[in-house]
Automatic annotation (TrEMBL):
Transmembrane segments: 20-42, 130-148, 157-177
Keywords assigned: Membrane, Transmembrane, Transmembrane helix
Name of this chain's protein: Uncharacterized protein
Length: 179
């Protein structure tokens, strides 16, 4: 990023919208941080539930190749949804632990097995959402450093901050919708 000379006047668009972008990025950071706190730090609630049905997510299967199983997506009687990688949950009676705020499933146990390490939905480290949110948080940190640094920057830099973070927010919301 090339900074502009100190005597170069700041772009009118940047000066009008810089504060708005800083507030928007701060609000996004707050909600993502709340999600991580909810999933990893805050206490959880326990319930027993019954798996009503599941779907197998696959990848590949083109040009005559056999599709590979990516994950199993489960639906329960009490309305919880979650995904697991690798292992299929054979028993329908399960015990779930879920987060307080967003009701994300954090632990899954059956009478015979513990499937907690296989969870791939929500902000579990096995899931894609975890990594998308981490990239977004890293991008927001860099963007806020640039915006709050006091140094002048180009209009292109400002547009890049808005567009990349906006695109990452879109991807995160889409992943939240899918999983």
């Amino acid at each position: 990023m090339a900074s502009l000379p100190a005597d170069f006047p700041e772009n009118e668009f940047i000066s009008k919208n810089k504060t708005l972008v800083i507030y928007a990025l701060s609000i996004i950071t707050f909600f993502i941080s709340l999600g991580f706190l909810d999933f990893y730090v805050l206490p959880t609630l326990k319930t027993t539930d019954i798996i009503t049905h599941y779907a197998i997510r696959t990848v590949g299967g083109k040009n005559g190749t056999k599709p590979q199983k990516l994950s199993y997506h489960y639906y329960t009687q009490k309305g919880f949804t979650f995904s697991t990688v690798k292992n299929y949950i054979e028993e329908s009676d399960i015990e779930l632990e879920y987060s307080l705020v967003f009701k994300s499933v954090t632990k899954i146990k059956s009478k015979n097995n513990d499937y907690t390490s296989d969870i791939s939905s929500s902000l579990s480290i096995n899931g894609i959402q975890f990594y998308f949110y981490c990239v977004l948080l890293f991008s927001i940190a860099i963007s806020l450093k640039i915006l709050l640094s006091g140094k002048r920057f180009s209009e292109n830099t400002f547009y890049n901050i808005i567009c990349f973070n906006g695109f990452m927010v879109f991807l995160c919301l889409y992943m939240f919708y899918l999983y």
